[in-house]
Amino acid sequence: MRFLRGLLGRGSRDEPVDPRTRWPEQSVPEDPGAAARLFWRSWFELLPQVSAALGDGEPQRVEHELCRAVAHVHPDLHFSLERGQRAIYALVVTGQEDPALRPFTDAWKAAAPAEDAMWEYHDSVPPVPDPAEVTVHLGETRVALAEVRIAAQVDSVEQVVDVAVHHPALAGLSGPARSAMTFLPLDATLGERLAAERLRRVETADLEPEGAISLLELRELVRGLGDAGT
Questions:
Q1: 93: CB partners within 8 A, 6+ apart
Q2: How many other β-carbons are positioned within 10 Å of the β-carbon of residue 117?
Q3: Which of 106, 187, 188, 230 is the most exposed place for a label (fewest CB within 10 A)?
Q4: H-run or E-run covering 169
Q5: What is the pTM (predicted TM-score) of this model?
Q6: Does pLDDT of 131 surpass 80?
Q7: DSSP assignment of 106-153, as one string?
């Protein structure tokens, strides 16, 4: 399963929930490097269509072609088109921190072209510059990440953090929407890789916990653990 985010969703003020598209079963390539090189050839062939679709605000026009190209690297990878932090756009191809997929994302990143003013490339979902500026739309519900509060308990021995995520709208959500709104603020704040490395237990809190902190305070806390880096 792969996903194509709504156009430039991360970091925007009107961020949609990720739509997901199933793809037929495909075999796993034996050579990650060869599969990565095949992807980048396909990417450059598709780039005029991708640019036109993004320019028209209709990224779904290239979803099918991009799904097929990413699946040729590995059928379990996910991808997204994002707002870039250094360039205008970002292409993200991620294995969601599955160790079995790391050789494929490593090969994909190693074969990537040099970044330019238009495109940057990431092998894990990066954090947004300021999650407080993001608003997520879940149907009729608008969820401003500025209102998210986190209860954080640090395990100083293991150098990990257990968190409980609160937002006033969470009590009214259930199923996939509730799960998305529990994990999405954490990935937006820390990035996929750091969240996977440093968050241990993640829970949802319908009521704001005592002593809760903001998402930016959570980022500062987690980045300060051990050699987590930035």
A1: 70, 73, 77, 78, 79, 105, 108, 121, 122, 123
A2: 9
A3: 230
A4: none
A5: 0.71
A6: yes
A7: HHHHHTPPPP-SSEEEESSPPPPS-GGG-EEEETTEEEEGGG-EEEEE
